[in-house]
Amino acid sequence: MDKIVSLSDGESTVELQKYLSSLTNDQLITAMTNSALRGKKVGTMLKGILKGSPPGSSEGANRRLLVYEHLIPLCESGDLQAEVAADIIGLLMLETRTLSGSSLAKLAALFVDAIKAGKMGSGKSLELFPTILTALAACAALSYGKGELSGEEYKKQLINSLCSSRWDPQCVIHLTTMFRDVPLSAEELQFLVDKVLRMFSKMDLQEIPPLVYQLLLLSAKYLNPCFFFCFFRNLHLEVQTIPQDQLRHVEGTVILHVVFAIRLDHELGRELLKSFKTSYGDLCPFSVALLLSVARVQRYEEQVFDLLKGAVIKSYKDEQLQQGSKFLQDLLPVHCSVAKMILDTVKNSVFGWDHVTQGLVQLGFFLMDTFGPKPGPFGKSTEGPVTAARTPSQQACKLGGQMLLQGFKMHEPIRGEILEQVLNRLVTKTASPVSHYLDLFSDIVSSAPMILLESSSKVTETFDHLTYLPLGTVQGFLKAVQPLLKVSMSLKDSLILVLRKAMFSSQLDGRKSAVTGFLLLLKNFKVLGSLASSQSILLKLIISLRRCLGQQADVRLMLYEGFYDVLRRNSQLASSIMQTLLSQVRRYYEPEQDLLPPVKLEPCITAHGDQVYLQEPLAHLVSCTVHCLTWLQNTHQAANLNVDDSDDEAEEEDEGYKSELQTILESMTRRMIKCELEDFELDKSAEFSLGSSVGVKNNIFAVLVMGLYEVLMEYNFIRANYNKTRLEELLELFHRHHKLSEILKEKSGKGRGPSHKTPRSLLSMGFVSTLITALFRDNSQSREEALSVLRSSGEFVRYALSVAVQKIQQLEDTGHTDGPDGQHSDRTFRFLCDMTSVLMWRYTNIPRAVEEAGKKEKRCSLSQLCLDGLLRIFTTCQQRCPEKMAQLLSAMDVEDEAEQDDVAEINYFYIRQFQRALFTQLSGGEEDFNSREAQLLVSILTVLSRQLKPSSKQFVQMITWTVKICKETSFEDSAFCKGLLSLLFSLQVLYKTPASLLLELCQDIHSQLGDIDQDVEVEKQCHFAIVNMKTATAALLVLTQVDRVLDEVDWLIARKKSQTASEKPADASQAAGQQDPVEKAVTLQLGTLLTALNELVQTALLPGNCTVTLLRELSRTYATLTTLVKYYIQACASQHGSLPSRFEKLVKLSGSHLTPQCYSFITYAQAKLLRETTAIPNLIFSIEQYEKYLITLSKKSKVNLMQYMKLSTSRDFRINAATLDAALQEQEETGEVEESQEPKRKKRKQ
């Protein structure tokens, strides 16, 4: 070694060459090995060897090759110091270009063999490989097998061989790093990336982030992020067995690498977003997290949120479309749920994904802002407070709320921001509905009240704005904040202070907000023993509320409606509340027992200029007093049974106001029965017009008096305890109420001014439920005589039922009812169950013959009222609490036919009951047919059938029965026909495609209405007897189903298009003669649809909406056909396949059958329609667009599709002689119409 070093330092290389020639290969190898291991003068020695080995001579070239062949494995062995190995590789890299082509080929083979054998574990020598490959590529020709290859081709073969072989997982990162220095073509890069991705599953999890980093650098160099998709799939699917926390931490690191790379190279970011825009099916929790992290780069923020918003709403729409169609369910698997992926991302973010949390918060609010309820006309919410999210927009809004709630629970750093943003929206969005933000705030408070106390200052700030917020927002906010008030005295004090100020607000809503707040505090504020502090706070609250008794009617009304709930929740306040109510009642009560009426009505109103207003809602005041008194008496009785001794002083005080109130109510009842309407100045001669102040005053008085009668009726029924005399008094009260009610109806019907709405009944829902149960279901012998008093009055029974329906309707519209327990959903639901049972019994057990006498009257029968109530109950339950539907049905009396445990059987038991009732209706003659009752039965069957599973035998029985009824019923009733067909279609789409059903109905309609050419006799068809001359127009409900079929076909074509775009040509090619199942289904659907529309365009429809609607549906059909043609143009361009024969038949059907008939129908419509419509030019444009793209497809596919198209006649300047003559003769009212000049069409084929 020393000799080589000393010779290399000399001037002459001849001696060095001689000396090296004298050494054998083994001696040279030993010298190099020893020098490298010692690490001394190794560089100088190597330089000497290379200096004495001129590349021009064969001996020198061989020696150089020997040096490379020996030192490469030595560096890789790990025996050398890192610095020594690095120096050696560096020297070798410098000398690589001097090697001959054959030497380079041998070295490259050496590397490939070492990689295949797994001997490149440390990867130190791999830095040399790119230099060798680059030098190889520069060679002109290299021997390969028996022939020659260019250096570039040789390099390609090597890379191919390398990527096709087995790699040691330990060397994957080294190899990927090495390839960054190798010039690669796009094809080679793709080959390499595929190989690396296949290695993911075999690698240690911790090695994945650095490998991704190397891939990113490699990809950035070539601006080709093609590996992204595959990488996410591999990372997501191959590592299911790895512990979640490890996997999530690795994913988090990978995301950081990707985002860092995107910040440096925006082309990567653009490519990433472009790849996701094509299909949301490629999203997974990891890619959602990546996108949210990318959103932190400002230039991508808007694009990312728009992309995710679009993916969410499209996913929900697709899900809705698939769930509502058996045709689509059978054809395609259920699509992945983007919502689930996003929620999984929220769960995964707990593993240190801080870079994702900010994006989650922004996306959550973005979804809630975008898809929350919108303000309707005059700022009212267009969506009622329905609990179940049904539309895609509602579901997307709900998803935003779920994300924020989960994020709030999991991540401490973002809690403050979430809370602040929610509260800001509650305060600032006064013109829009904020129910979704209130729900979120309520969920946050109830899930983590103690955490929220840390941000109590933000809640206190919001209190200051309460006076200026809409009443609904204040009520929701104060309800949500209740759990916080229970644990924080300072918050409670802040709120009380704000509410006191609000009590003197100039705005009515501000004062109402104050009442709401005080009532909520009283409800939830518990007195702890006899603590003077808590009692004094309660006293102050009561005093504040008493001030409300001098305010407007609306404020007083809120107070009266709230007192009962306060009393129930906080019975210690009984004395204060009852004394307050008693003193208020005294103001309007006439104590002189001989004077009539017993109440002073004049102080109940106030005048401002010409306007008269209600000042005191007297009936509500008495109603509140009655309910509070009744509850106290009931609880007192229960307490007396349990406890013998009690506080005598408190009891005496209680007895004092109780006896006084009872005396007042007894006296009021007695005197109100004696009162005639003249005593209130409300007889038939009184004016009730709402156009004059006198009329308004009389209306107010009438409503107050009717309310008083109702309140007293309820009070006396409870007090009567089924005493006959008491119930006779109750009936007297009703007669007075009924008389006044009839006068009001009569007067409001006559006046030309604004009509008077029926006032809402003041009977409580609980009482109505008890009353109708007593009237119809109470069989006890002891009560028989007393109840017969009420049962004998038909008017009273009708009144009880109509109030029950009114209460159910209020529940359906708003989610709650007036009166006690109206806001309490569980109690209200219990009343609903009781009512359902009674109404069902009344409808099914009272024969219709009993009611025949009532048929002569214009008003509806009691059976109809029962049905109306049942329909509203089922609809309300299905919309507001679908999970309780089974409980509601189970609450009814089920006979032995249905098993109590089987919910589906119970449901079907009731369906059969209503089917029987409808069958009975249809079995009688048409003169006995009650159309309204039949419609209600169909509506009830529609609601109940939604509870059936489409796969169940009950569902099949239901659809079979419906088809049978449609086929056999021939009543000429349009509304009933419409309802029955709607039911049929709603069932059919969940059973199979409705296309064949459409065709049969269209044939029936054509047969009934006749042809547009009067000379053509239409073949008589009768698939469905329900379609007849009178109902054929109603049967055009089929056009809405045409829309549905087109929606599904459009959706399928769009899916196929996106699949074709993302597939490689190799994947997309299909076996000869085979057609894709989706394409086949689309073609068959459109074929049936075209045949059905072909029937309708030949039908002599009545001029009007149905004609215009048909023209629009035809336009849409041609637009869908055009979309399908465009799809095949795209398919021909990418696959070079032949067109399916089914598609050619479809084109033939459209060209030779439908299009000529469309032009005939256009002529017919132009003659019939008296107004201009854009539907006709739109249809012509759609047909022409279709034909235009057919020409393009003909050229691309080399198939002449235009042979099936008949040229349309010129539409400009055309006069139809027959139509013109007919119109002229009609105007002149002359005799016969001239014969049509147009040639007759052939009769329809048999």
Q: What would your notes on this structure say?
A:
With 1246 residues, this protein is mainly alpha-helical. Among the domains are: 224-373 and 390-411, no CATH class; 419-518; 1042-1059 and 1077-1208. It contains 53 helices and four strands. The strands form two sheets. It has a two-stranded antiparallel sheet with strand order 1-2. Strands 3-4 form a two-stranded antiparallel ribbon. α30 packs parallel to α32. The chain is flat and about 150 Å long.
What does the secondary structure layout of this molecule look like, with pairings?
Elements: H1 2-9, H2 14-22, H3 25-38, H4 42-51, H5 58-77, H6 82-95, H7 101-116, H8 128-137, E1 142-144, E2 147-149, H9 151-164, H10 172-179, H11 186-198, H12 208-222, H13 227-237, H14 244-264, H15 266-277, H16 285-294, H17 298-323, H18 326-331, H19 338-348, H20 354-371, H21 392-410, H22 415-428, H23 435-447, H24 449-453, H25 456-463, H26 471-487, H27 489-502, H28 508-524, H29 532-547, H30 553-569, H31 574-588, E3 605-608, E4 611-614, H32 618-642, H33 648-674, H34 693-720, H35 724-750, H36 765-777, H37 781-791, H38 794-814, H39 825-845, H40 862-880, H41 885-891, H42 903-923, H43 931-945, H44 953-968, H45 974-991, H46 995-1009, H47 1038-1062, H48 1065-1068, H49 1077-1096, H50 1105-1135, H51 1141-1168, H52 1175-1197, H53 1217-1228
Helix pairs in contact: 1-4, 3-5, 4-6, 5-6, 5-7, 7-8, 7-9, 8-9, 9-11, 10-12, 11-13, 12-14, 14-15, 14-16, 15-17, 16-17, 16-19, 16-20, 17-21, 19-21, 20-21, 21-23, 22-23, 23-26, 25-27, 26-27, 26-28, 27-28, 28-29, 28-30, 30-32, 31-32, 31-33, 32-34, 33-34, 33-35, 34-35, 35-37, 36-38, 36-39, ...
